[in-house]
Amino acid sequence: MGEIDQKAFKNARRLKLGKSKVDEEAAMLVLKWQNEIQNPAWCPFKPGPNGKDVINEEDEKLQYLKKELGDEPYCAVVTALLEINEYNPVHRCPVPELWHFKEKRKASLEEAVRCTVNCWKYHRISR
User: Fold this and answer.
1) What radius of gyration, in Å, describes the C-alpha atoms of the chain?
2) Label partner for 127 (CA 20 to 30 A): which of 20, 102, 117, 118?
3) Which pLDDT tens digit goes with each residue over 72-104?
4) pTM for this one?
């Protein structure tokens, strides 16, 4: 949780550059914005309803990102910011999260244990 989806930046660069050097450009942009997200001096949040922080859409850096690269990278950065703020607002570093890729959601502890036991049984039997 809290890492930027690189696909959004690849798609944005592909629209502007074509296919040449898309991966390099996207990787550099993702690294730049990941560092911005982890910078505790940058606070793109404002108090929202129910005491929760919400993204300040007036923030200069976010406006620049949206203007220069478009909505998809902007949404990827905002999603990463919200995840970091939810899980680790003080240190602002990404947090590992169990993920159910087929259903595109967080995996429950029960699902993780079931998967681990099934893998263990499979490897035990195959030896």
Assistant:
1) 18
2) 102
3) 999 999 999 988 888 766 667 776 778 787 888
4) 0.73
